[in-house]
Amino acid sequence: MRNPLVPIVVGVCLTVGLGGGLYGASQLLTSPLSPTPTQSAAPVCPHVAPVTVGTIIVPAGPIAGYCQDRLVNAAHIINAARSFGIGTHTQAIGVMTAMGESGLRDLSYGDAAGVDSRGLFQQRANGAWGSLTDRMDPYISATNFFAALVRIPNWKTLTPTGAAHAVQANQDPNFYTPYWDGAQAIVSALSK
After folding, report:
1. Per-residue pLDDT averaged across 53-61, rounded?
2. Which of 45, 72, 143, 179 is deepest in the core (most CB within 10 A)?
3. HSE (side-chain half, CA atoms, 13 Å) at 96
4. Which residues pair with 56 in a beta bridge?
5. CA angle at residue 12 from 9 to 28, to 5 degrees?
């Protein structure tokens, strides 16, 4: 004899199982891919050997919530700034900007504000930032960021977020402010 509760129990299990899976997937898709300034839990970084980027030794991390894969990009930004003779304060402005724009990831996609934006700085395909290859190269994109920054009158007197905004023209001129402390921590740690 067939138990009449089996279809109900199976239906509930499938609904809970699929719902849990969908919930888990939705959390994965909506969770930030980079630490936000308000996240308190440090990520667990993979145990990897330090790597050298230029003269910078990049540890496994975390530093300011970022692991080595993203810290390598910060090292490229620092090296690009150094090629201009730019000190640690302005190096941190570059790192802060990339933290806000991409979470220190070399993104191959844009967003609603710039569907053609790419790279660490989400630079647009408007000719000002070089080719797609340039925009996807962490060192070259950072070099282009600093080249634009030093052309701004009085760039040395701007606040960190003001300097970033002057280059990036973000809709919110204070967008980068929450990333400042983390950027300073990264530059300090990678400059030792």
Report:
1. 96
2. 179
3. 28
4. 53
5. 145
Dihedral of the alpha carbons of 50, 51, 57, 63, in degrees to the nearest 10: -60
Rg of the chain on CA atoms, in Å? 21
Lowest mean pLDDT among 21-25, 44-48, 81-85: 21-25
Give the integer Cα–Cα distance in Å for 26 and 173.
31
CA dihedral sign, ordered 156, 158, 161, 163:
negative
Please tell me the pTM assigned to this model.
0.78
DSSP line for 27-95: HHHHS-SS--TT--SPP-------EEETTEEE-S--BTTB-HHHHHHHHHHHHHHHHTT--HHHHHHHH
Closest-CA residue to 138 (of 120, 156, 115): 120
- Give me 124's structure tokens: 């647009």
Q: Which pLDDT does position 124 carry in this prediction?
A: 73
DSSP-derived 3-state class of residue 109: coil
Residue 71, pLDDT > 90, answer: yes
| Cα gap 151→136, rounded to integer Å | 22
Q: Which two tokens stand for residue 56?
A: 């910078």
